[in-house]
């Protein structure tokens, strides 16, 4: 590791290109360095950080034979000035982050059926796509903290207090990325009883002193709201230096951009007769918080030939409703079937509007990263007025602030301007997949090709198959589509078993369960129950960090 090339917490300067400087989607903050946005997570005006410009990957074609880690280095370097992380250090961080994966290719592409391909993102330590970004983010935090803490002792050290919300996968991936790391405490809030048993076990059986699991009486959105309330509280934010591991943290999105390029190049190698360099591909992405698919949008904007990004939602379908109506509203406007509404298949809907589905990691009312896409759409719209770039950015920030304020105060906003919606539809289309369709898809793929899908992946595959059918009808030929496989099926045993229980050959223990999960349920656990109240969570954070400090002799 090189010694402090950049001053602690330095803002972006002339050594940073526009894509290496960051601004807030709500317009108040700009000129940040990568280190600042990674450590801060959320901007102080409540907005999310985005690069001031999206760089074009000018020689992306020449990357086609690179390994995953070399590709990651080329892509990530476009967004991080070498004055902040010297190239050799960045390479070392990347190599270390992906050495923990079980697959040599890190994110292998497999042909599922016909022109439908699966991008397997679950070969990391916790068997979910979050590992791709969180192994990297854990090592980044460590790198910055070692540099900031040189020569410092005890309470003078910069101690990061990570607070995150999880519906199960981010929590375990963040915990595995940060366990045992010096100068970081990690607090993960999950909705009590609403994560799968394996997810719960993965999180709560990690007993490192810096890991704290909080089971919140509420849903995932409540956990996310508590995290945002903590970030908005100037007191705890300054005394405890809060950090984010959710996809509000820009480094999460950045790391995920890599596998869109990698998948494209894998397809090129696997389908040489029907897919050539420069051909467009589609991606179908099971979506909740909109982080994974947003990474695809960045890849597209950087120049990767992407035809469409297909958003696949479960019955918590705020995104699908936006793309159909232009309105972004927390609560569905439709009610139960008995009321003449559209609710399908007897899915349990909580009073708060969140439905409990078979793909629980996507049981989300509000998709936090959608704010980043909204900024780019508003910026594009503002740019058509012919004013200067500073004005365009200011307008975009104001527009996003006003939309987000309506979302908070009135439960929604829209319809957005026609041009904004059309611009969104140019790159995205959306599909809503019910629980019954999820089960049918798991069953169909098992019967047809013997592949066991996890329920989230099945939502994406069903969306991919619908898109394929449309392309076939409209254009007379099926196109290659890459569906993102976001979790290993063993993480969601009950949905998989429900789908496949009547298949005579199917045996969950033998066909699905990885050895790493055996005995997890017998391990010792540590978890604290907390009320759905951000001040109560703040007290727990203060108290548990204090106990950690005392144990360290600080
Ligand atoms: C297994 C799985 N699939 C899909 C998603 C949705 O991804 P995103 O929230 O980035 O849209 C999640 C959670 O984020 C997940 O854990
Ligand atoms: N499905 C997620 C929810 C949090 O999403 P994130 O990508 O913003 O961290 C989870 O698994 O926790």
From TrEMBL:
InterPro entries: Ser/Thr_deHydtase_PyrdxlP-BS, Thr_synth_N, Thr_synth_N_sf, Thr_synthase-like, Threonine_Synthase, TrpB-like_PALP, TrpB-like_PALP_sf. It comes from the Eukaryota. Residues 107-340 form the Tryptophan synthase beta chain-like PALP domain. CDD domains: Thr-synth_2 (cd01560). It is an enzyme of class 4 (lyase). It holds the Pfam family Thr_synth_N. Pathway: Amino-acid biosynthesis; L-threonine biosynthesis; L-threonine from L-aspartate: step 5/5. Residues 21-98 form the Threonine synthase N-terminal domain. Its cofactor is pyridoxal 5'-phosphate. Keywords: Amino-acid biosynthesis, Lyase, Pyridoxal phosphate, Threonine biosynthesis. Its EC number is 4.2.3.1. Belongs to the threonine synthase family. This is threonine synthase. It comes from Podospora pseudopauciseta.
């Amino acid at each position: 590791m090189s010694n402090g090339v950049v001053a602690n917490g330095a803002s972006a300067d002339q050594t940073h290109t526009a894509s290496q400087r960051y601004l807030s989607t709500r317009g108040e903050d700009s000129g940040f360095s990568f280190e600042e946005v990674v450590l801060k997570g959320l901007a102080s005006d409540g907005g999310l950080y985005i690069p001031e410009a999206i760089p074009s990957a000018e020689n992306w074609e020449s990357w086609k034979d690179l390994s995953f880690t070399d590709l990651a280095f080329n892509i990530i370097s476009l967004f991080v000035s070498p004055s902040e992380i010297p190239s050799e250090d960045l390479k070392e961080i990347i190599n270390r982050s992906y050495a923990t994966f079980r697959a040599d290719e890190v994110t292998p592409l497999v042909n599922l059926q016909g022109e439908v391909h699966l991008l397997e993102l679950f070969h990391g330590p916790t068997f979910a796509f979050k590992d791709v970004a969180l192994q990297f983010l854990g090592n980044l935090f460590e790198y910055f903290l070692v540099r900031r803490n040189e020569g410092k002792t005890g309470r003078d050290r910069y101690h990061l207090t990570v607070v995150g919300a999880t519906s199960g996968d981010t929590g375990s991936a963040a915990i595995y990325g940060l366990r045992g790391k010096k100068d970081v405490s990690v607090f993960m809030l999950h909705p009590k009883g609403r994560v799968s048993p394996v997810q719960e076990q993965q999180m709560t059986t990690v007993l490192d002193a810096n890991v704290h699991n909080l089971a919140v009486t509420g849903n995932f959105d409540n956990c996310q709201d508590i995290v945002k309330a903590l970030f908005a509280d100037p007191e705890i934010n300054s005394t405890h230096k809060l950090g984010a591991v959710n996809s509000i943290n820009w480094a999460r999105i950045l790391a995920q951009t890599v596998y869109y390029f990698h998948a494209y190049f894998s397809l090129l190698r696997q389908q040489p007769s029907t897919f050539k360099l420069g051909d467009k591909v589609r991606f179908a992405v099971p979506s909740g918080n909109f982080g994974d698919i947003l990474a695809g949008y960045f890849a597209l904007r950087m120049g990767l030939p992407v035809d469409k990004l297909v958003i696949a939602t479960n019955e918590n379908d705020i995104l699908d409703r936006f793309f159909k109506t232009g309105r972004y509203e927390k609560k569905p406007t439709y009610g139960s079937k008995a009321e003449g509404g559209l609710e399908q298949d007897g899915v349990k809907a909580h009073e708060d509007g969140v439905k409990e589905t078979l793909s629980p990691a996507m049981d989300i009312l509000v998709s936090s990263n959608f704010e980043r896409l909204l900024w780019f759409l508003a910026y594009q719209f503002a740019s058509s007025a012919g004013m200067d770039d500073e004005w365009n950015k200011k307008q975009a920030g104001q527009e996003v602030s006003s939309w987000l304020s309506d979302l908070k105060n009135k439960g929604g906003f829209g319809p957005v301007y026609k041009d904004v919606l059309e611009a969104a539809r140019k790159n995205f289309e959306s599909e809503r997949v019910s629980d019954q369709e999820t089960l049918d898809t798991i069953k169909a793929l098992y019967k047809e090709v013997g592949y066991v899908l996890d329920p989230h992946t099945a939502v994406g595959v069903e969306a991919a198959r619908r898109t394929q059918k449309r392309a076939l009808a409209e254009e007379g030929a099926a196109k290659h589509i890459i569906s993102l496989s976001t979790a290993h099926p063993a993480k969601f045993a009950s949905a998989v078993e429900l789908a496949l229980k009547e298949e005579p050959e199917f045996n969950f223990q033998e066909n699905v369960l990885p050895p790493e999960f055996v005995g997890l349920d017998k391990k010792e656990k540590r978890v604290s129950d907390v009320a759905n109240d951000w001040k109560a969570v703040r007290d727990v954070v203060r108290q548990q960090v204090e106990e950690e400090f005392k144990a360290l002799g600080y």
